[in-house]
Amino acid sequence: MWLPWARCQDGESSGPDQDREKRWAELFDQLDLNKDGRIDIRELRTGLAGRGLSRGSLERIVEAGDTNQDGVLDFEEFTQYLRAHEKQLKLMFRSLDRNNDGKIDVAEIQHCLRSIGVNISLEDATRILLSMDKDGTMTIDWNEWRDYFLFNPITNMEEVARYWKRSMMLDIGEQLTVPDEFTEEEKKSGYVWRQLMAGALAGSVSRTGTAPLDRIKVFRQVHGSTDFKGNVLNSFQYMLKEGGLQSMWRGNGINVLKIAPETAIKFTAYEQIKSMMRGGSETRSLRVHERFVAGSLAGAMAQTAIYPMEVLKTRLTLRKTGQYSGIADCAKQILQREGVAAFYKGYVPNLLSIVPYAGIDLAVYETLKFAWLNRNIGLADPGVMVLVGCGAVSSTCGQLASYPLALIRTRMQAQASVKGAPKLSMLALFRNIVTKEGIAGLYRGISPNLLKVVPAVSVSYVAYEYTRIMLGVDIEGRREGKGKG
């Protein structure tokens, strides 16, 4: 990663203004990829790819510096923008430096964020500091602060807090993850629900894109090795022959429909549970294990509320051509033939699977992300690809731990639709699978499930970026500028 300005950080030069102008000239030359004396949005995105900035942030840089409104920055506009932005950064640095010693420490980070409604633990504050501390002093001096935020168009400490605590909502079609650490201002402004809506829309696109692999997974889970001998390709060919290409998306409609209510219920429940855990101390930050418990309980509540839709999704995914005319017809037939209880078949193993999935997913994600931060001390916050990679690996680990329970849940949901299948309890079904198919039987269908992780996470992120822009929500929590409404 290029950091040409890092060479001039000692402040010992007799001409700081000259050094600064020279440094900016080097930066401009680095960013001007086609050497035409101007920098456009594409060149900014390429040159600053490792700094984790959204397209909206880069567009605000161009918009703020583009005085002649030609859509690009020449050298004079570039230096004028940096000069003005450095002044803003200097004011923010001084507001953080409470004891006026020219350095920011962990306690000052905590105090500043607490004053604007963002409560973080000492551990989290230390991680924030480490991401900016280049010289290993466990403090942030002016040069480190300036270099870190030089190309981030923040204007106040609220935006700094949002940048530090930003969250992505990546949905791979399994348990839904809801972003954490929203400020009171974000909740009141409607930003939270716009971000949740962007995540829900991204999840819809992601699930639709990977629906064929999801349908193959469900078929192999339910029918085991009896009907689907061979690999994923053989399963795909069987379903293609039975119902044509469009049949690969059976069950996707209800899978997409349940995203919105699940998101709303889970987030609302999560906020209420966190509030109860804090008791009378609303300013207290929850520890990792407390957030895990709160997330698991919120997930259980959301699953309880939308579980009938899970059953409908499984039945519609497994249906043969002409079996149901739609979602309403499927629900009607289940109600008439099996009663209300059928809508909660597999409920217990489903609840049990939430804990290992959520716990391992959270633990692995945070471990990987903070391992990156510790190995790259002084660099910017993890970029998009790092976070997407962490999300894919952590989700895969979570699935490996919870998959046997998910398989048993799906088989219980589908029992009535499989002719001759005995109506077994969770434990009886577990013993039956292990006896007939061995331990490997508990992981039947996991290959298409793992195959969809990377494309699902990638599609979800790309869709999230575009839907977030359409809804006017920048990743740092600001409303996008013109043309983004």
TrEMBL record:
Instruction: Region Disordered: list its residue ranges.
Output: 1-20
Q: Does the keyword Transmembrane helix apply?
A: yes
GO MF annotation terms: calcium ion binding
Sorted alphabetically, which SMART domains does this protein's record hold? EFh (SM00054)
Q: How does it sit in the membrane?
A: Multi-pass membrane protein
Q: What are the UniProt keywords, alphabetically?
A: Calcium, Membrane, Metal-binding, Mitochondrion, Mitochondrion inner membrane, Repeat, Transmembrane, Transmembrane helix, Transport
Q: Which GO terms describe its cellular component?
A: mitochondrial inner membrane
Q: Where are the Solcar repeats?
A: 190-276, 286-371, 382-470
> PROSITE patterns this protein is in?
EF_HAND_1, EF_HAND_2, SOLCAR
Principal localization?
mitochondrion
The UniProt entry's GO biological process terms, in alphabetical order, are: transmembrane transport
Segments forming domain EF-hand: 19-54, 84-119, 120-155
Q: Please give the family membership noted in the entry.
A: Belongs to the mitochondrial carrier (TC 2.A.29) family.
UniProt protein name: EF-hand domain-containing protein
Organism equals: Amphiprion ocellaris
